[in-house]
Design goal:
There is one protein chain. The chain is built from six helices and six strands, in the order H-E-H-H-E-E-E-E-E-H-H-H. By secondary structure, the chain is α/β, with parallel strands linked by helices. It has a single domain, classed as Mannitol-specific EII, Chain A. Strands 1, 2, 3, 4, 5 and 6 form a six-stranded mixed β-sheet that branches. A hairpin with a 2-residue loop joins strand 2 and strand 3.
């Protein structure tokens, strides 16, 4: 599974405005709903329910919220760089400014885990995080996410 199978340029948000974790998750749900033709409320409820089990922040300013949705055909993602970092209950206590939402079909056990692992590996790379924070524009961010992922997959 490649990152460009999960995300498209229209699901990259270069400057998301939100001041709380809940606002970040709701805004990502709204954008995912628009892209997928789904109800925003269904997506937001699934994300928030998963988040109540424990924070999806990984540390170093990154979070990978994820949820399973009935009727979804494949794993899809939405990436956002926040205008201002927000508290996300991260294990290192640092606020989050890079968020990659993953939505998976209810029965996508292995695909869901593979996507989570791939995104987590990519965002744990300090150089990738630095470039994502310093890159302007949707297309440039998309290229950075997918080009870096492609080079990691080839290694």
């Amino acid at each position: 599974m490649k990152l460009n199978d999960l995300i498209a340029p229209d699901r990259v948000v270069p400057a998301l405005r939100a001041s709380t974790k809940k606002q970040v998750l709701q805004e990502l749900a709204r954008r995912a709903a628009t892209a997928l033709g789904r109800h925003e409320r269904d997506i937001a409820d699934a994300i928030l329910q998963r988040e109540r089990l424990g924070s999806t922040a990984l540390g170093n300013g990154i979070a990978v919220p994820h949820a399973r949705l009935a009727g979804l055909g494949r794993v899809v993602g939405v990436f956002a760089r926040l205008e201002r970092a927000v508290e996300f209950d991260a294990p290192d206590g640092q606020p989050v400014d890079l968020v990659f939402l993953l939505l998976a079909p209810e029965g996508a056990g292995a695909d869901h885990l593979t996507a989570l692992a791939r995104v987590s590996r990519l965002l744990r790379d300090a150089l990738v995080r630095e470039k994502l924070r310093g890159t302007e524009g949707r297309e440039a961010l998309y290229a950075l996410l997918t080009d870096r992922a492609a080079s990691n997959e080839a290694a």
